[in-house]
């Protein structure tokens, strides 16, 4: 069995072929797609966060709205760029969204990727400390968040408060019990996956990672997952970790599917650069008739290692078409692979 969800970047553009013309469209359609995904039997609705872009940027109002409209599906991020985040404010917003959803929030975090503007986090009021990099800053923000999510008091109460306080030091409210165990780290390298395991975060591995050794993408990603699990066991955590991988997967069952994605049927991994001098490997798109797709996915070592598969969706094609994309996988592919 495998959890299957979708991952949306929430792109919007006022162009002739887009069904998502505005920020309002992107947000409202995201809610509608999550509702439809739950009705189809999918397990998760996840959203990427980008700043200064015509994409989804403020996840917690969206996640709270989805939590109020659904009852079963996991809701989450994949991922929040922690260079931009006040960890205490994040804890408050995440706690509220988790309580509204009844404990279904799965919060994916990361140090972030190249953004639309230079050092965008500076406009949000953040800068690395002396001797730190922006990646260090993101990890320090994350460590503070993990600490306050434990629910322990740390703030000295006012001796003459407006409202009566409970005894002792005060914690961030609202506190969402169990959310600390539902924090994920989007790791782009083997070393950051190991770091996440040591801190007790679940692992999110995307459709790209640092090219570490030259093997095919799925082989490198599977090795990353195994390194994460080894570090988890060595850290002595008692609960079982979760691991997700993201993939672009399209079962070609209609002429419309073939028109949109038939050209990706011979897709392959490719090499690129996210940061200057840092070589990255990008995973292929899977697009084929269902029977062929089953065979291709069965050979993906990283999918086999993960408990959760997040399907990236072309959200500008609209809610109805993306519901069809998810239904194709859930109906024609997942059962044949033993995922359902």
UniProtKB/TrEMBL annotation:
Luciferase-like domain span: 8-257
GO cellular component: cytosol
Pfam family, one: Bac_luciferase
SUPFAM superfamilies: Bacterial luciferase-like
Keyword Oxidoreductase: yes
Domain of life: Bacteria
Key words, A-Z: Monooxygenase, Oxidoreductase
GO MF terms, alphabetically ordered: monooxygenase activity; oxidoreductase activity, acting on paired donors, with incorporation or reduction of molecular oxygen
Gene3D superfamilies linked: Luciferase-like domain (3.20.20.30)
Name the UniProt record assigns to this protein: Alkanesulfonate monooxygenase SsuD/methylene tetrahydromethanopterin reductase-like flavin-dependent oxidoreductase (Luciferase family)
């Amino acid at each position: 069995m495998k959890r299957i969800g979708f991952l949306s970047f929430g792109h919007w553009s006022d162009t002739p072929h887009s069904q998502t013309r505005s920020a309002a469209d992107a947000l409202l359609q995201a809610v509608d797609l999550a509702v439809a995904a739950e009705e189809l039997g999918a397990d998760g609705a996840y959203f990427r966060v980008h700043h200064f872009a015509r994409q989804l940027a403020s996840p917690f109002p969206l996640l709270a709205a989805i939590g109020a409209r659904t009852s079963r599906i996991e809701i989450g991020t994949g991922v929040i760029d922690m260079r931009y985040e006040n960890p205490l404010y994040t804890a408050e917003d995440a706690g509220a969204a988790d309580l509204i959803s009844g404990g279904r929030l799965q919060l994916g975090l990361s140090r972030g990727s190249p953004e639309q503007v230079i050092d965008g986090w500076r406009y949000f009021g953040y800068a690395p400390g002396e001797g730190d990099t922006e990646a260090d800053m993101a990890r320090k923000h994350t460590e503070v968040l993990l600490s306050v999510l434990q629910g322990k008091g740390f703030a000295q109460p006012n001796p003459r408060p407006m409202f009566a306080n409970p005894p002792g030091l005060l914690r961030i409210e609202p506190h969402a019990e169990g959310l600390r165990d539902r924090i994920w780290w989007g790791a782009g390298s083997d070393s950051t996956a190991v770091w996440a395991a040591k801190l007790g975060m679940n692992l999110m591995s995307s459709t790209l990672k640092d090219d570490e050794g030259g093997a095919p993408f799925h082989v490198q990603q599977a090795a990353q997952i195994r390194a994460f699990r080894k570090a988890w066991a060595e850290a002595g955590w008692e609960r079982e970790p979760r691991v997700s991988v993201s993939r672009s997967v399209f079962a070609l069952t209609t002429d419309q599917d073939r028109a949109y994605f038939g050209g990706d049927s011979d897709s392959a991994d490719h090499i690129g650069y996210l940061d200057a001098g840092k070589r990255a490997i990008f995973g292929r798109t899977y697009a084929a008739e269902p029977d062929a797709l089953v065979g291709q996915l069965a050979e993906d070592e990283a999918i086999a290692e993960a408990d959760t598969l997040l399907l990236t969706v072309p959200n500008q094609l609209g809610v109805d078409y993306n519901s069809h994309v998810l239904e194709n996988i859930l109906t024609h592919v997942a059962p044949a692979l033993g995922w359902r």
